Amino acid sequence: MSGDLLSSIATELAAPVPEAIRQSAAALAARGGTGVAGVLFYGSSLRTGDLEGVLDFYVIVDRLKDWNIGTVIDLACRLLPPFVEYAEIPAEGRILRAKVAVLTQGQFADLVRPNAINTTVWARFSQPTALIWARDEASRAELGATIAQAVASAAGWAYALGPVSGTAEDYWRSLFSHTYRAELRVERHDGRSADIVAHGGARYAQLLPLAWQANELAFEQTAAGGLIKTGVAPARFQGWGLRSFLGKPLNIARLIKAAFTFRGGAAYLAWKIERHSGVALNLTPWQQRHPILMAPALLWRLWRRGVVR
Length: 309
What we know:
Elements: H1 3-13, H2 19-32, E1 36-42, H3 44-48, E2 54-61, H4 71-79, E3 83-91, E4 94-104, H5 105-111, H6 120-125, E5 129-134, H7 137-161, E6 165-166, H8 168-181, H9 189-198, H10 201-214, E7 219-221, E8 227-229, H11 240-261, H12 265-277, H13 285-289, H14 291-304
Parallel strand pairs: 2-4
Antiparallel strand pairs: 1-2, 1-5, 3-4, 6-8, 7-8
Helix pairs in contact: 1-7, 5-7, 7-8, 7-10, 8-9
């Protein structure tokens, strides 16, 4: 891996974040004890600093059992990672709401390689990320290298799927348009990909040539700052058709798995409903433990109150 790319990613991972985010990451790390290698923070809240919505964390562990998820769920999340839960975390005198995804270090490394069939993880971590908590310097360095690999994988696919020539932003927009089309999404993929790049144009322009160099891809830079491909993408960046074909079925499989394994899903749903409708559900402990079984009764209550029509 190129030293320049690793250095750029290390600087980005160490960027300052609000103290409430640091406290939240420390609380998540404490839950997993010594088995937690690091806690990553990403998503729109990282870009905007808005802590009112649901924050996005990834917790990287040595073994899934370090997160105490149970044998059956452990097996499901080995087959279809990651494990995901909703958490409400006290920080700086307030409650922060978070979606927490959990991966082992081995899963994380596998999912950011360019030959991974599942494109969502390297696409996600090619975007801005902060490493809020690390177990030690060795873990920090390993996670930094993994995220640098995610950027390199994304950039290599941008080379394979993008135009012959264009700006760095053109290549990234093309890439994210392809990855969004391969997933189940409610947003328009072109608008979403343009929005992602627009929030970090200088960053993406800096990283693309560094990542192409790390991948040993042939290109030239024009005097105006454009890029021209002068080679062919190697085998590890070929076969997008298969990834595109399997993307939505994999998303559906993960959604089905989440219906049975998403811890805290009932509380998350109740909070979303209250936020958007003003209706407080006040779920019982049994309803929180059994979100699927409680769903019919919940829908009936919401229908009677006019929330669902």
